[in-house]
Structure formats: C-alpha cells, structure tokens
C-alpha cells in the first residue's frame, strides 16, 4: 500500500467514525464532492492545503492523518 492509499484509507476511516458522508465531509472541507472519493481511493496526490482542510473538517491534527 502506498502513501496515497494509506492517507485515503485513514480519511475514510475517520470520516466513518464521525458519521459523515463523503458529501458532508467535502462540504465541511470546502472541496468538490467528486474529489473526496478519489482521495479515499488513493488516486490523488493531495496538496498540503487540502490535507489541512480535511483535518480541520474532521476536527483532528494533520499528524493524525498519518498515524498508523
């Protein structure tokens, strides 16, 4: 599993733990709703700005997205 897939899996896991749909998380993070599924599948190189938006939307620290 590469880093993009690990990050995507972690985002998906945290999103589900918080009871959020992909659309709701995308709205909270102010990213396009069609972008989030590709992030969760590990298909995107995600910018640090998007990582920051997702962390804020999930109410976590950026480092938490990379904890195993």
TrEMBL record:
GO terms for cellular component: cytosol. Residues 11-65 form the HTH cro/C1-type domain. Keywords: DNA-binding, Transcription, Transcription regulation. The keyword Transcription applies. InterPro entries: Cro/C1-type_HTH (IPR001387), Lambda_DNA-bd_dom_sf (IPR010982), TransReg_Diox_bact_type (IPR050807). Gene3D superfamilies: lambda repressor-like DNA-binding domains. It holds the Pfam family HTH_3. GO terms for molecular function: DNA binding; DNA-binding transcription factor activity. It comes from the Bacteria. The keyword Coiled coil does not apply. PANTHER family: HTH-TYPE TRANSCRIPTIONAL REGULATOR (PTHR46797), HTH-TYPE TRANSCRIPTIONAL REGULATOR SUTR (PTHR46797:SF23). This is Helix-turn-helix transcriptional regulator. The lineage of its organism: Bacteria, Pseudomonadati, Bacteroidota, Flavobacteriia, Flavobacteriales.
């Amino acid at each position: 599993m590469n880093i993009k897939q690990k990050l995507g899996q972690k985002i998906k896991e945290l999103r589900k733990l918080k009871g959020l749909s992909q659309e709701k998380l995308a709205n909270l993070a102010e990213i396009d709703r069609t972008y989030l599924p590709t992030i969760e599948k590990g298909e995107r190189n995600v910018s640090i700005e998007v990582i920051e938006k997702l962390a804020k939307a999930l109410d976590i620290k950026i480092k938490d997205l990379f904890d195993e």
